[in-house]
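Tutorial sheet, problem 5. The two components below are modelled jointly, 1243 residues in total.
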Amino acid sequence: MRNEKYTCFLLVILMMTFAAQAGTIKGTIVYEGPIPKLKPINMEADPICHAKHDTPVLVETLVLGEGRTMANVFVHVKNAPKKSYETPEEPVVISQKGCVYTPHVLGIMVDQPMKIMNEDGTLHNVHALCKTNKEFNVAMPGFRKEFTKTFKEEEFMFLMKCDVHPWMSAWISVMGHPFFDTTGKEGTYEIKGLPPGVWQIEVWHERLKTQTRTVKIAGKDDVQVADFTYQHPSLKKKAAK
Amino acid sequence: MSEPQERYYNIAKLNKVFAISSLVLLGTIGWMLLDDYARRWKGYQREFRSYEVEKTRVKFDKEKNLLKDQERYQELLVEREAAQAAYDANSAGLVDLRTELEAVQGENDLLVQQYRFTKAELDAAKYQYEEAKNHNSSNLDRAEEAFDVLQAQEKQQKLAVEVSDQEVQQKRDAFDALGVHLKEIEREQGRLAQEKTLLENKLEKIDQHAMTLPNLVADLVRDLPLIDMASPNYKIRQVVLKDLKDDLNFMQVPKVERCITCHLGIDNLDYKDLPQPFRTHSNLEQYVDNDSPHPLEDFGCTSCHGGRGRGTDFVTAAHTPSSDEQKKEWEEQYNWEAFHHWDTPMVPLQYTESGCFKCHSGETVIAGAENLNLGLQLIERAGCYTCHEIEKYKGWMQPGPNLKAIGTKVTPEWARRWIADPHSFRHNTWMPAFWGQSNNSDPNSQARADQEVRSIAHYLFAASKEIELTDIPVPGDPVRGEELVASVGCFGCHKIEPDPVVTPATRQNLQREQGPNLIGLGSKTSATWVFNWLKDPHRFRADTRMPNLRLTDQEAADIAAYLTQSDISKRDDFDRKPLAPIDEAIVDTLVTEFLTRTMTRAQADEQRAGMALDDKLEYAGQKLIAHYGCFSCHAIEGFDDMKPIGTALTQEGSKSIHNLDFGFIHIDHSRQAWFKQKLKEPRIFDENRVKTPGEKLRMPNFNFTDEEADALVTVLLGFTKAKPGHLKLTGASVEEQYIQEGQRVVRQFNCQGCHELEGEGGAIQPKVFDWLVKYQDKEENEADAVFKSFSPPNLIGEGKKVHAQWLFDFLHAPSTIRPWLKTRMPTFNFTAAQSNALVRYFSALDRVDFPFAEMVSDAEIARDYEDGKKLFSEEYLACGKCHIVGDQTPGGSADSWAPDFTLARDRLKPQWMIDWLMDPQALLPGTKMPGYFEAEYFDDAGPEDILGGDETLQIKALRNFILGLGAEKGKTESSARSDDRPDPKQTVVGGRVSKAFTVPGD
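Model answer (structure tokens):
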């Protein structure tokens, strides 16, 4: 994933005449407040899924790393320059392994291929509930190991789910530019190759919604840090339930 | 000499008078001619012509530039020059060739002629030979000889002609070949420049700067007075509509429409930004255009818009302004005034959709006429058709509840408060207000109103019959009840809105007002009544629209508890409203008034004196119910088969303005103004009139908003006498009739409150979303993605999908198909006619044969059993992962299950199953059923080791295997029945119902 994105950044940088002036925005996202007790997923409905895990699998609504860093936060430049960018040929890969989508949150560019793998050997179906793009719902019986799709339009965050295993869900964002990243467990992101300007950095989390900050890239090799903290009252309410 | 004749006048003076008056006369004739000549529409045509020239020139320039930039065209120019040069250079050879060709052609002509002669002779010889042979004539030999000679000659000559033909052809080809290249280039050039040439020709015709001198002169002269009778540029343009007639008392003449004399750009998109009258008509795909369903040549203008088609100036065309501002503007600009004595002036723009109703009156929803559709649905919801006869709604059910057993439901006190002012109990009720209106709010009228209401309530309760209510067997839980109300589907027809919410009047909103806003039921009635009603609404009224949700006792008790014992159930302020004491004097007046309608005052007094107070109240109540027409909306004992009390509205839109009583109210004297005023304030025309209580206007007040009133006015204006020719009416074919019949049932039972049908409806969906968020712990973004799959199914393609017999049975006794849905298909107690109408409707919508569909033979099912079973299995397509098969349920909760395959044989049409397996998303967008055989991957979709990897065969085998699952079930069922055990289908389905509807975690 990472490598592909770097390749794509590289291409963009090569394309731009003022490539030398490109800047970087990076940061860490942490969580504050009580940590809710997350429900383990009951996979007994499909014994194949159940057998793939020794320990209970938790729902991925809040995944924290050491020091409460947040995974699965999508970061993008909201006011990215509108122009056509090179579409990476390398596909974004989503695996279905142990009846869980990996990654759980991802960004992909318009027309970039999305390769979906089925490593479980059981029936999955890949149901993308997009609205701007054409909704699709493709069956992946055990013998079908992979298939590829592309999205034709920009569309921010829609759900992809498996109707056979209702706990499986992934959030996808189809972007018109390459200035986005998703945090891993360490909670960090990095957006490279930004031309000088004032950029709105938006972070998105499936439950805790969005936050925006403005960051200025002054010029050559400027590296700016924009950290975010999520703290949401509704989380406390959910935790109490 | 004779004396000069004696004259009493002076010749010289007289000559002067004659001279002056003849000059004046000449001047007048000139003026007359000029006035006749200078028509306003000519000015418009001149103005339009300049726009036309301008547009054409712009287009022409553009086209020219395009050609300039077009490589191929530029290449052609060069090529053409070269080809022309080559052709010219060859011209000497050309002359030789032509001479040769002519010579050969001459020879050929001669040969052909000879051949034809010989052939004629041969025919004659043949006849003689046959004749001789038949009669055994002595000439036989000679005849035979002649025939043989000629036959040989003919053969020889035919050969010569063929050879010569070939030679001619060769020469001609050679001749043609010389110019062929040039011609080809010219043809391609012409094709590329076609648009340009057309525009150029047009410019030459209309643009004075582009004309040749003689043309210019002709152009200037042809419009001069008197000469312009020949072929003027500026002339009246018209269409004659053969199918549509104007009714000129005792005579029907074809409609003639001259609107296009001024509305010159009406059918051409080039003029969409021009000012009126030149602007293009909106939505040419639907109207005016020749390829549209409503071409100008067939429909004209006035059949939709009204107005006077023959009129050629602003006033005589009977234009109507759409607002006061426009009226003022028109008066200044065009000296506009209403065109008197024309029955059908133009309909103001905002009501134009009324024109659609003339032809589309049978349809329930008229595509594109949103205002009209809203108006029609408002009529249904408000129940206008019960007091006012409306052809379209003949036979529709009463909109109000049955009051024949009112005593079991409410108290007389509650009823009196309600009747007097229904909106004070339920802010958005559809029960209109009869009292507290502009013509009965003075103190005297109010005192009278109290006693009127009391009398009506008295009659209702005196006539009320008892319905036995069973006690609630289990205690109800309001909290569970609230969840049930949110999940089982009540919100498809009902709202629960304690306080007014400003909602725009939309049809979807009206769908959720099919039933009452369920607030204040604790004030209105008892939990026991609600329980009994929920358990079996049809016991209270067989044709009620409230369906039976087949609730268990516990569920019904919970809902009853929620509706009558929670916060939403109280109406304390209403319960405390004071009730006036009885005033016998007023009751006496009421009784006397009614009695004296049929007897003398003395007789009336005598009769009244003999009546007890209860009798008087009952008598007055009965008469008042008849007076106000309560029986129109409600079933009331003693009022069956009464005639409606209101004006018939079927032709209200054609009513003469002189038949509308404007009273002393200063509004526009137009139908639309009167209708709107009447709808907004029904009693207003009584203002300043002197009337007895019995004479007063009595139409009740529905509190329509402006938006709603406008929609209703649109419909009323569409209720016209004039129906266009038969050819134009929709609903002529059997399919259309089936569809319209079905739509009526769909509307009356509000199917679209839950289901999406014909692309609209599903009004409950936002409430399903709310339920997912509130009770299923879903985040809003998640709920937004899945709420459709938890909503009642979209019925798109139902006719293609299910067997008619199955659908009929299902409507009669619904069973669970989608175990993950909490909303349940209720039992509506449809009559056979209604069910049939629905089944036919779905078939007609999908254009499938009705009623029966093709079958798959048992042999075919048996043949595919093994392959199908393999495909079905866990190792391959794993259908059982989601689908129920008889008693076998998949793992997990019902949320992820899919319909039972044993239902498929009876339910699904075999061809539909194939289509569904091929591409489920195409048939039902958003379905949870994934595509196994998507077109994109079709050849790789199926496993290679079954049926030789042929996907088409695999799909068929799978379908047949699934059909077989239903057959197996059928067998077990029939054997079980013969044992006289309970029907296993029922137990299985019943068992599943209770399982499916268990709230997870309960």
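Marking note: The radius of gyration of chain B is 42 Å. Full credit if you identified this.
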